[in-house]
Amino acid sequence: MADSGDDPVYYVISDLHMGGDEQLGTVDFLPELLAFLERLEDTDENAQLHINGDAFGLWEVTEHDGIDKLEALIERYPDLFAQLRATGAAIPITLLPGNHDSELAAFDEYVDLLAEYNVELVQSESITRPIGDRTIHFEHGHQQDENNRFEDFGNPYETPLGYYYNTLVTSRAGRLSERGRYNWLKDVQAVTPTERVPRWLLSKYFYREMNPLLRYGLLPFLLLFNLSVLLAVLAGLDVAGVWTIPVETADAVLTQLGLVGEAVHFFLVAAVVTVGSLLVVSVPAYLILRDFGHTVERFGVLEGDLTVDPEQPYIEAARDVFAENPETAVFCYGHTHRPTTTEVEGRVLVNTGTWLKRLHRRDVVTGVLPPVFYPSYQLCVVRIATESGSVVVDYEEIAKADPSAEELTLTERVLTLGRAPTPTLPDRTVVSPDGTNDTDETAERVDETLSSRE
Fold it and tell me: Between 20 and 30 A from 430 (CA), which of 12, 141, 218, 411?
């Protein structure tokens, strides 16, 4: 055990989401998590481990009720809980509930059961911990999200909107995932924000579930859709007598190519006819859908956003905490799964990311094909410590194999050539004793998943 006279060093992880029905019960990062816990068990630092919410996917467990959910997870992951017990005997482990495991705050039996594995469960939405002469504010972050906010945290009967999405959509996806051509539907829990689920489903249907003969038959038309539209417009101008297509020149070039030229000629004619027909149909369809959208907007059926703004609510919450408690140096949260650091009032707002798979949207290089969702892992550990009187925040990424080679088809990789994501973690942030903030590169580093391109 480390010397207790030293300032504590906090290791923070969040959003593990371990548990769920059937396929959701698979923990892809379990070997890496066990190795990390073993490392903390043998550390010489005055370390503490803080699990900042959503350690367990209890909302996604619908086959058990109450304390039985956690007991089922203990039975499913015996190595994990054995290692928690060993690590917790060496350093303090604190667990804060999130929204997905909010019922941990509802029953004292959870406190007693986790204590058997040397994990201190704090049945609260936030806690404060000392760091040198300053403090750290920890919260999971769901209370800044209107779809997952609790008015009475710890009330087992309160169910925000997010509860229904996870029990009815995410949990069911876990039960159905194996029915696909490969086990992909369970990854719906990694799609953020949830508005992207329809596009993600379309993408996985086209690249994975569609009959291959149909997909590869459509592929040339969709790849050359833009060219086909141009040719259709030129053909329309030719018919109207506005501009004449140099047909003879084009035919002469294609004739020189022999059978290949004939095939290209046939394809271009078919593409123009197909696109022309689609354009004729799409114009009235667009007008009808546009009018329907305006009608829905007038009635307010879909009023408001489905997901919380990724940053602004937390910046405002941090300002409130810093104003009320000037000694606070760090506001640490999770929930949005986006590892970021942001300077706020001379202090720092820290997001601890997630250990779940992350999906990065990438548009194809040409045509009108569905976007590709690149999978990646950023097993993220935040280390908060003191150095020369300053509070220092570092990110550590625990290596895990890139899943894209296994989970993306050759078609997906070719269509996004040069657009594969390279997610990075924020640089070191230093909060000086006088309240100023410094980083190695910038005062604010926002992960690329916040960009509109994803």
Answer: 141
